[in-house]
Amino acid sequence: MKKFLCAILCLTLLLGVSACGQGSDDPEASETPEIDLPEVVVSESDIVYASPTPTPDPQPIENLAVCGINLIRDGQLTGLGFGGAEYADGVLTLTDAALSSNTETEPVISFSGGELEIELVGTNTIEATNGAAVISCTGDDGSISISGSGSLTATAADTAAISVSGTVTVSATVDITGAPAADCEEVVAGDGAQISENSETHIAVYAETAAL
Fold first, then answer.
1. Residue 9 belongs to what H/E stretch?
2. Sign of the CA dihedral with 186 first, then 110, 190, and 159 last
3. What predicted TM-score, i.e. pTM, was given to this entire model?
């Protein structure tokens, strides 16, 4: 009887093992089923284009630097200022500025591409040594106009204090010394100003609106 029961038990175990093995023999049983996705069609009207970044209005002059700091580059404002010098609305304003340069290749104020308008507020001094210019324009198109209620004393050693191809118009109180004082087409007095001296090495202009 025991032998008969053992035979039945062994047969049952063999049938169970055989059933488990049959499930692992199918190679397709573990493959990921394929999913059909709908075709997406994109038309021109579906594309959203970003608005272009507005280009800032070009400035009256192409480039402007004060003591090597670019205030205008390629006709666009950089948002920088330096030592009492700020540029806005087409005017370089000097407010109680004390500027200097001792590098021959770096004028205190350099610009290109148009007329530089300078407004003086308070007492301003600019000193250039070692062959540096006070104000210099690169290129053939350059003029300067100086106005305001303030004053300017500018000195250059062994070179022109102001070097531009065009005219220097002064409507403020200024005292300029250099060798020469101004290398330009001519120096003229603007409204309310009088030139008291215009020699090779010294230019002095007095304006009635100047703060004394």
1. helix 2-24
2. negative
3. 0.73
